[in-house]
Amino acid sequence: MFNYNVKICTDSIIQDYVEIGSYPEKAEEVSIGHNSVIRSHTVIYGGNKIGNRFQTGHGVLIRENNIIGDNVSVGSHSVVERENTIGNNVRIHSNCFIPEFVIIEDDVWIGPSTTILNVLHPPCPRFEDCAKSVRLCKGAKIGGHVTIGPRVTIGENSLIGMGSVVTKDIPANVLAYGNPARVICYLDKMKCEAGYFETPYEWIE
């Protein structure tokens, strides 16, 4: 079901039981770029501006007024709340929760069942101001089942190990993990335990 205020490029695929632009009332136009695939039971609210080659898994919920770049994939049963900024080449795996006002820069990879939280003292009467505080910088990689707390920035290219709880900023180009997450080493000091590469991410220029 589509609201009249929806613009979808004709080369995109929209599967059954998808709702686009139906909520909220009087929302701005939704636009979805070329070669996109919106899988069944996805709900996309009004006001979203979405680039080319966008993909959703099944049962994805995307609230209103997000800005989403090219080559973005959102896995099955993930929730993206309102007014986020998501760059190009971003992968959000299944069962993730992205709250309001998060900035996700280009080339970020978010593992399954990751939860981001954005307010220190819920419910806060200044939520709109307080919650604008989480940033995943370019090339950051977040392992599965990670929790990222309010007012946290993950630095460029950094890797957060699975199951971590991130309560403070993580600098660029490091491996961090634990509860609370702490810096373990710089990425260029890591080893590929499988033996396929000298160091992980050496293929990234």
Would you write up a description of this structure?
The chain has one helix and 26 strands. It has a ten-stranded mixed β-sheet, with no helix packed on it. It has an eight-stranded parallel β-sheet with strand order 1-4-7-10-13-16-19-22, with no helix packed on it. It has one helix spanning 127-130, and strands at residues 6-8, 13-14, 19-20, 30-32, 37-38, 43-44, 49-50, 55-56, 61-62, 67-68, 73-74, 79-80, 85-86, 91-92, 97-98, 103-104, 109-110, 115-116, 135-136, 141-142, 147-148, 153-154, 159-160, 165-166, 174-178, 181-186. A hairpin with a 2-residue loop joins strand 25 and strand 26 (181-186). The protein has 205 residues and is mainly beta.
